[in-house]
Amino acid sequence: MAVVYLRGRENTTEIDIHFEFLYHIPGEYEGSRIRVTFYRNKLVERTIDMGWTNIVLFRFINLMKNFPLEKPNGNYHHFEKHLEFHWIYEYSTDLYLLVLEDQGILFPLKTSKSELVKFGHALEKAVKLAPNLDSFTDLE
Prior knowledge:
Elements: E1 2-10, E2 13-24, E3 31-40, E4 43-53, H1 54-65, E5 74-76, E6 84-90, E7 95-102, E8 105-111, H2 113-129
Antiparallel strand pairs: 1-2, 2-3, 3-4, 5-6, 6-7, 7-8
Helix pairs in contact: 1-2
C-alpha cells in the first residue's frame, strides 16, 4: 500500500491526514480505493474508506500540485460527497486554512502552499506505486 500524509499545526495541536492507496486500477473510467485517516495529536479521529474514479482523483492531484490554481480561496467537491475540501488564504501568516469535510464532520488543517504542492506530487507518486486490484486483500 502506498501512504501519503499531509501535516498541519494549529497552535499546539498536530493534525495529520493520511491517504492510503489500497489499490489502483489504471484507465480513465477506472479508479482507486483509498483509506483516509484523520489524526489529532497522533490519535485517530476518523477513518474513511472510499473509492474515487481516476477522473476525480487526478483532478484532485492536479489541484494539489498546482495549488491553489489561481484562487486564493476556494473549494473542491466531488459527487460522492466524501471529502469536500475548502480553503481560505490567511494573508497575515501566508498559510492556508483547509477544511476537509466528510458527511458533515469537519477536519481543519493549516499549512503552506509549498506543503500542499509537495503533497500533490506525493499523491501522484503513490498512485503509481499503489498495488493493483489483483494483489489487494482486505485486511479488515
